[in-house]
Amino acid sequence: MAKPTPNNRKRKLPRTNRVSIMLNDSELRALNKYCDAYTVSNRSKLIRETLMRNILKRFDNDNPTLFD
User: Fold this and answer.
1) What share of the chain is helix, strand, coil (3-state, %, to 5)?
2) Helices vs strands, H then E, count in the chain
3) Per-residue pLDDT tens for 14-59?
4) 47 domain-assigned
5) 43 in Cβ contact with 35 (< 8 Å)
6) Coil, strand or helix at 47
7) Is residue 29 domain-resident?
8) How far apart are the C-alpha atoms of 57 and 60, rounded to whole Å?
9) Among 35, 29, 33, CA closest to 50
10) Can you give the pLDDT at residue 2?
11) In this predicted structure, what is the pLDDT of residue 44?
């Protein structure tokens, strides 16, 4: 298997699908407070990466293993 190079590791995939979420007032305040505290400039990226990290972790945990 070829070692990933910096060019193909950072390949951009176009984001053409929109997903929207609704937050209540306290959830939005918590998100804004987090973004201010940790100087997050791109909330979409934060939410997307956090969501996908959680999904992939759950997929990994749910995978059957040879020895339990």
Assistant:
1) 55, 0, 45
2) 3, 0
3) 999 999 999 999 999 999 999 999 999 999 999 999 999 999 999 9
4) yes
5) yes
6) helix
7) yes
8) 5
9) 35
10) 57
11) 95
pLDDT tens readout for residues 52-61: 999 999 998 8
Domain hosting residue 57, numbered range: 23-61
Show the tokens assigned to 50.
């956090």
The kind and range of the H/E element at 61 are helix 43-62
Asked if the structure places residue 55 within a domain, the reply is yes
Indicate whether 39 belongs to any domain.
yes
* Count of the separate structural domains present in the chain: 1
58, burial (CB in 10 Å: exposed 0-12, middle 13-18, buried 19+): exposed
| pLDDT for the residue numbered 35 | 97
Tokens of 25: 């007032």
C-alpha span between 37 and 33 (Å, rounded) = 6
